[in-house]
Every structure is written in C-alpha cells, then in structure tokens.
Write a structure and sequence with these properties.
This protein is an alpha+beta fold and 287 residues long. The chain folds into 2 domains: 134 residues, no CATH class; 149 residues, Phosphoenolpyruvate Carboxykinase, domain 3. 21% of the residues lie in helices and 39% in strands. It is built from 5 helices and 21 strands. A 9-stranded mixed beta sheet has the order 5-2-3-6-11-10-9-8-7. Strands 15-13-14-19-21-20 form a 6-stranded mixed beta sheet. The chain has a 4-stranded antiparallel beta sheet with strand order 12-16-17-18, with helices on both faces.
Length: 287
C-alpha cells in the first residue's frame, strides 16, 4: 500500500478524478502509475470518508445485485436522485466493506470505507464503469495489442485465449495495452483503447483501435468479418455494464453502433502460436 496524504488526482482514459479526504488515503500499487499532476483539471470528484454510515436499506429501491452462488459483490439502490452502492468484503462473507453514493450526473462520489483503502476492489472497477457513462466510452473485458501502427482488441468468453494471444503478440514485438480490462473511448472522432489500474503495476497506456477480434481456439487460423446488428450484439456482449436503466442500454447501443460502423469486427478462430500474427496481417490486407 502507498499513503498519499489527503488528496491526489488520477487519470483513467484521460478522465481526471480528484480523490480527497480529511484523513490519509491508502492507494493500491496498481493505481500509482495513473497519478497525474495536482494542476490537472478534474472532471470527477471522489470524496472519501472512514467509517460506515447508518443506512435504512429497506427505505431504498433496489436496482441491481452483483453476486454468484458463493458470495455477494455489490448491491445498487436508488437514493437521493442518484445511486447508493453497498460493497461487500470478498474475504469475509456478508461483511459490508464500503457504502458509496454517486450523483445522477456521474461526476461526484462519496465513498465511506471501513479503513483508508478508498478504491479497494470492487470499488475501483465500479468507478471505472460509471466513468464511461460520464463520457463517450465503454469498459470492456478484453485485451489489446499495439504493433506501433495498429491497435487490435481481442475479446471472448473465459478460456477463449485472450492472455494467450496477447503473449503471442508481445513475443512478436507488440505492446500489450492490457490483457483483461480496457476502456474504449471516442475522442475527436476517433476510437482509442486505454488500460486501467490493475492489481499489478503497469504504466498508463493508449493506442488507436483499428480492429476487434472475437476469439476462440480453433484447429486452424480462420477469420470471418461481421457487420451490422450482428457485429454490435457480439461485441457488446463483452462490455462490462449494469443494465438496470434503459438510458444506460441506449447509450451503449449508440456507442457500439458507431464503433462497429467504422471499425472492422471479426470472429477469429486461432491456433495458439505465432502463425496467427501473420495470418491477421494478411487477412486485413485482403479486407
């Protein structure tokens, strides 16, 4: 852990967040490379407190629950024209780790924590998700390789080979933007891919987005180009999102429709060796 006094600024996908508190904030190491100068203009304010407030959850409207058969991750309620998030400790079943409030314009957070770790998982990724609703962006479960000219995003279901294909491109000399969680943001009419703070330390990275590949293991390298509603629906399946509000869904549909209209989308079955690199380059030449 790193202690950063009472405030700092952090940039994710070029959106600057001002994180501040009356007490010392502890920041996980993966966030440190994303710190920016205090003179940077913040677009989102994140106010942090130590200690959990009393909340009458029965009086709030339940909007969404993130959980599986073994544990609860977080719950979202409607509150005061915005949202109330209840986050659970992932190591102690049923224990509330944090309670957070977000306003309706997605630009002001109040985070109440049991300790000084204001962005402790899953709080950090939740902030990243709602950051994309604040701007023209989406959060994706994907990897991206940048060869110095083109940025290619690879996505697929668990076990499809995102880490494998990232390693192959890295061995071929490409820069890996991230191999798990990315932000796609539209800026000045162009789409870019950004990495996000992770549990490990990595520098902040950015690359143009020139193609998207929906991958799976296959006996041979084989690509099929997708278009229209099919391309939109298949790419959107790997967006990290909360869909309890129709406006959220519409915003995502508009974003992906725009993205897929200008970015080549492929289904790619690949052999897990270096042959896929030359295959993709040749396939893109052929259109």
């Amino acid at each position: 852990m790193n202690q950063f006094g009472f405030e700092f600024k952090i940039a994710i996908a070029e959106v600057v967040l001002h994180v501040f508190s009356k007490k010392t904030i502890e920041l996980e190491a993966g966030y440190v490379p994303f710190l920016v100068d205090s003179s940077a203009t913040a677009e989102i304010e994140v106010e942090c407190f130590q200690g959990l407030p009393e909340v009458d959850f029965e009086a709030l409207k339940l909007l969404f629950e993130a959980k599986n058969d073994e544990q609860r991750f977080y719950t979202i309620y409607e509150a005061s024209g915005g949202y109330c998030f209840v986050l659970f400790d992932q190591n102690q079943k049923g224990i509330i780790q944090q309670i957070a409030y977000l306003n309706a314009s997605f630009d002001y957070w109040k985070i109440y924590s049991r300790n000084a770790m204001a962005l402790k998982y899953p709080m950090g990724p939740i902030i990243m998700h709602y950051l994309t609703l604040f701007t023209d962006a989406v959060l994706m479960h994907a990897s991206c390789a940048f060869d110095g000219k083109k940025g290619r995003m690879f996505s697929g279901f668990s076990g499809a080979g995102k880490s494998t294909i990232s390693m192959i491109w890295a061995n071929a000399g490409s820069q890996i933007i991230n191999d798990d969680r990315l932000v796609i943001r539209k800026m000045n009419g162009q789409f870019f891919v950004y990495n996000t703070p992770m549990y490990y330390v990595d520098i902040s990275k950015k690359a143009p987005l020139n193609a998207i590949y929906l991958i799976s293991h296959f006996p041979e390298n084989k690509a099929k180009k997708l278009s229209g509603a099919l391309a939109v629906s298949k790419v959107m399946a790997f967006c990290i999102q909360n869909n309890f509000d129709k406006s959220f869904i519409n915003k995502r549909l508009e974003f992906f429709s725009d993205l897929c209209s200008v970015t080549p989308i492929y289904e790619l079955g690949f052999v897990p060796d270096e042959s896929v690199v030359s295959y993709i380059a040749e396939n893109e030449k052929q259109g």
